[in-house]
Amino acid sequence: MTPEELIPSEARAFVGREVEVEEDLEIEKGAVRRFARVIGAKDRLYLDEEYARRKGYRSLVAPPTFLVNGMPWAAVLQEAVPRLRGAFTGLHGGDEWEFLEPVQAGDVIKRRGKLIDIYQKEGKTGKLVFLITEITFTNQRQQVAAIYRATEVFRLQEEGQEAPYS
Amino acid sequence: MSARPLFFEDVEVGTEISPPVRERITTQHLVQWAGVAEDYTPIHYDKDWALSQGLPGVIIHGPFKCALLGRLLTEWMGEKGVLRRLACSHRAMNLPGETLVCRGRVSRTYVKDRQGYVECEVWVENQDGIMSAMGSATVTLPLKSSQERV
Questions:
Q1: Residue of A4, B45, B73, B116 with fewest CB within 10 Å of its CB?
Q2: Are A165 and B42 within 8 A, CB to CB?
């Protein structure tokens, strides 16, 4: 397999190109509570606003990784992936978080992202393309709340398989 | 959450991150997670579609497992702890009906800028001990020596 077989230069050109995720993410109390509930977290910081305020926060604290909301990597990949050679099914391969500021209900988060790496590999399940995106989350106080790297793994589809949804 | 705060001096290399977080996952979790994370990828709720894509059934979202690891660490580190970093790599799939067990172990400790840094290995396994996600995390814990005497 040649290094460029699945990754033409038109796809590789997206590495380093910054994209702004259009909608700001408004951190809502109900969303924070629902996130806490689905992961079974009982910490009152996530559920009880009065308690969170007594502890010095403005409102409910969002549990770690809450900012994964909305799959921010999708906005970054939406132009690069269709330029790969072939039809692919994608799976989420990894998450890497750096937490810098607590995220609280009432915060408004801006998201900027870019593709930071793209490479291919021959795996057990076939030919794979790895795309790594980096998203920076900035709150309304101009503080970087978190930096996130998401790995997406795209597997080249065999002939005869249904075309993937986009 | 433990009532007694966890200090840097309380942990050492090999200390288990405990208690493990254990959740039996149902399709309802997948639907809830989809709504909460606003991830509507059909492989997580549309079984016919998942099968057509060569998957064994609807699969549990990777970021959901990462969030469970976040819970494991925040419940262990206590109120004065701060989760600085969390990374995990998804190596295998999990299906509803499986129980996810999140575990960890301290791998390195050091003091820097008067903060106690604790690096950990963390992973997600199922009820049969088969690992599906593995990664690492960094937590800071307060130093006993920096606490004021009452």
A1: A4
A2: yes
Question: Region A53-75: what's the mean pLDDT?
Answer: 96
Q: Which contacts qualify for A125-129: CB closer than 8 Å, 24 or more apart?
A: A125/A155, A126/A155, A126/A156, A126/A158, A127/A1, A127/A5, A127/A6, A127/A155, A127/A156, A128/A153, A128/A154, A128/A155, A128/A156, A129/A6, A129/A7, A129/A84, A129/A88, A129/A153, A129/A154, A129/A156
Q: What is the pLDDT along chain B (150 residues), one digit of tens a residue?
A: 455 789 999 999 999 999 999 999 999 999 999 999 999 999 999 999 999 988 999 999 999 999 999 999 999 999 999 999 999 999 999 999 999 999 999 999 999 999 999 999 999 999 999 999 999 999 999 999 876 544
Residue among A22, A68, A78, A152 with most chain B CBs within 10 A, to mutate: A68
Q: Are B30 and B58 in contact, with CB atoms under 8 Å apart? A: yes
Tokens matching residue B67: 């969030």
Q: Which two tokens stand for residue B130?
A: 């088969």
- The ipTM (two decimal places) reads 0.95
Residues in chain B: 150
Distance from CA of A47 to the nearest CA of B (A): 14
| Token pair listed for B79 | 């109120």
- Per-residue tokens: A14: 């997206």
CB distance from A26 to chain B under 8 Å?
Answer: no
